[in-house]
Structures are given as C-alpha cells and as structure tokens.
Amino acid sequence: MQDGVAEARMLPIGTRAAIRVPASSANLGPGFDTLGLALGIWDEVSCEVVESGLTIEVTGEGAGEVPLDDTHLVYRAFRAGMEANGCDVPGLVLKCHNRVPQSRGLGSSAAAAVGGVALADALCDRPFDLERMVQISSEFEGHPDNSSAAVLGGMVVSWADQPGFANSGYKAIRLPVHKDIRATVLIPYSRSSTEMTRGLLPELVPHQDAVFNVSRAAMMMLAMTERPDLLFDASDDRLHQRQRAAALLVTTRWIRKLRENNLAAVISGAGPTVLCLHTGDFPQELAEEAAEDGLRVLHLEICGGVERI
Q1: Do 129 and 31 lie in a common domain?
Q2: How far is CA 167 from each of CA 141, 162, 221, 236, rounded to the nearest angstrom?
Q3: 239 vs 162: CA distance, rounded Å
Q4: Fewest C-beta in 10 Å: which of 122, 124, 194, 300?
Q5: CA Rg, the chain, in Å?
Q6: Is 2 inside a domain boundary?
Q7: pLDDT tens track for 212-271
Q8: Residue 273, pLDDT above cutoff 80
Q9: 116 beta partners
C-alpha cells in the first residue's frame, strides 16, 4: 500500500478469458440518447496474459482499419476495467473477432467498450459488475443507450445524471420485450459518422416537438413491453431523424417506404442502418427490393447482453 492506494494484483502468465458482446440499436425513434435494444450480432473478444508487451489481432469487421496499439478502444476499456478491479498484467495478447458492422449505427464502438470492461472482469475471475460496465463503457461515448443495451440485453431505458457533462453518472434498467416483437435491419454499404450526424442537430428545439417526443418515448416503452399494436405511432420522432435526412438519403427513402407499408421503421442510432420493429414476418417483397437496392437485410434476435464464452 502506497499513498493510500492498494498495489494492483498481477495476474499470472497464461491466464485467459473470452467474452462475446452484442450489437445494439439506439433511440428506437423518439428515445434519443435514452432507449436502446440489444440485437443478435456478436463480437467475440479473448485475451491471454503473457510475459510482456501488447499484441492485438483483429479479424472481421474493421480489420486493417482500427489501430493495433494501446489506443485500440477494446484495450483502453480493458485497462479501465482492470484498474477498477485492482488487477494488472505484465503483457497481453488481445484477439477481437468483429461481426458488428462498423460505423453503421449498430453500436460497434459500444460493443468494443463493453467488451473491454467485461473481458477485464472475466480475466480477473470476478462476476460481471453490470453497473460498473454501464458506467465505464458509457464514459467512452458520453451517453449510455448503446452501451447499456450491450451490457444488459433486451430493451433498456438509460439516463445520465448530468447529460453532456464529463464525469456524469450513467444508469440503465432493462425492460422485458413483448414476445411477438421482431427486429429487422437494413444495412447500407455506406458508413456514417456519429459526430457528423450529431452536428446536424439544432441546439434548441420547439416546445411542441419536445412534448411530442416525450409522449412517443413513453408510448414506445408501452409498445415494446405490452402493446405491440402501438409500435407504428410510438416510433415517430421530431427531434433528430428529419434533421439528419439530407445526409442519409438511402436511409430516409427506406424509412419512408417501410412506414408507407405501416411498418415501424426508424434510423438505428446515428445511421445509416434502418431498424424495423414488427410482429409477424417481414414482407419478403420488401426484403428482396432492399437487397436489389444494395442493402443487407438481416432478421435479428432481440438478445441478451454480454456473456462469457
């Protein structure tokens, strides 16, 4: 013990751990920076303690694009998790097999942050500390919607004690999703920058639009848990989707087309992926038309959160 701080416990060489973490969709239309949903595309992350150094291997999505040094997001989150656990390693081999599409509005950065924190808990042979995972992973993005869904699974309602401020406390709860609700995503091959699309949003919004979104976000929680018949009306929004429309032309066109067919379609996170929430089968003719338009159509499980493998 030095200066009131306990010395970190060094883990033995050869210690291993592996976890997997799901994709997520944020906002669900009206619940901007608040509502999230875990979707069954999984990144897998594993590591082994070695004598020295840092080796990072990335396969799948993002391979050849992301940094392979200590600035890698999974590793940064892993270091934060290790510090929280009071543990350390002399060296590490970190392997990431990514399936969550990058920069498509499906929570790839949240999956990386959650994956790093969860890997630290697993490596230290401790139960997942879900509250700490929500807090640390949310700090990397400044809002907890995607990361909370990746941690807890299902649908989440999340919030920040001081939205927009550093060192805010982040919290989330999971809500049970109605058994009849299904999720389909339409993924364009183009990418979208969260920073860019956030820059399109006005600093101030009309009072009527704020009231509209509060009512729809409340309705969305009811629709997702008890009343799927309300999904179409509940998924409407006035705060962010039309403001981003000019930068997401394909996304906007397909949201319009799906909603014209009475399907609850929204931008997934910052886009460009389209999320459609529905009961029954997704119309085959629309799936084929979307594929012909260059979109990847996936019917995804609404799944649980991060887990050991």
Answers
A1: yes
A2: 12, 8, 28, 32
A3: 20
A4: 194
A5: 20
A6: no
A7: 999 999 999 999 999 999 999 999 999 988 888 778 899 999 999 999 999 999 999 999
A8: yes
A9: none
Residue 3 lies in a domain: no
Asked whether 278 and 71 are in contact (CB, 8 A), the reply is no
What DSSP state is assigned to residue 246? Answer: G
List the Cα angle 11/137/38 in 5-degree steps: 115
Q: Are residues 81 and 164 in the same domain?
A: yes
In a shared domain, residues 156 and 214:
no
Q: pTM higher than 0.85, yes or no?
A: yes
E strand spans, the chain:
9-10, 16-26, 35-50, 53-60, 87-88, 91-98, 155-160, 170-175, 181-187, 264-267, 274-279, 296-300, 307-308
For residue 309, tell me if it sits in a domain.
no
Distance CA 114, CA 33 (A): 17
Q: How many domains does the chain divide into?
A: 2
CA distance 200 to 12: 49
Name the one residue in this structure whose structure tokens are 């389209």.
Answer: 274
Q: pLDDT tens-digit profile of 111-134?
A: 999 999 999 999 999 999 999 999
Is 105 in the same domain as 207? Answer: no
Question: Could you tell me if 23 and 159 lie in one domain?
Answer: yes
**Runs of H (alpha helix) within 124-240:** 130-141, 145-152, 194-198, 207-225, 231-234
Is residue 172 located within the same domain as residue 185?
Answer: no
CATH number for position 228: 3.30.70.890
Same domain, 141 and 27: yes
Structure tokens at 39: 């979707």
Residue 2 Cα distances to 8, 199, 243, angstroms: 11, 45, 53
Residue located via tokens 């992973």: 137
Dihedral sign for Cα atoms in the order 63, 66, 68, 70: negative
Residue type (1 letter), 4: G
